[in-house]
Amino acid sequence: MREGYIKFRCEWEKAQLSAPKGLDEVNLVRSRLWDLGLVGVKEDGVGFGNLSIRLGDGFLITGSQTGGKRILSIDDYSLVLDYSWEENWLRCKGRVRASSESLSHSACYRFSPEVSAVIHVHSLNDWRRWLDRLPTTDRRAEYGTPELARAIAGLVRKIGRQGILVMGGHEEGILSWGKSPVEALNLLLDWLDVG
Question: Which domains does the chain have, with CATH numbers?
Answer without folding.
Answer: 9-191 (3.40.225.10)
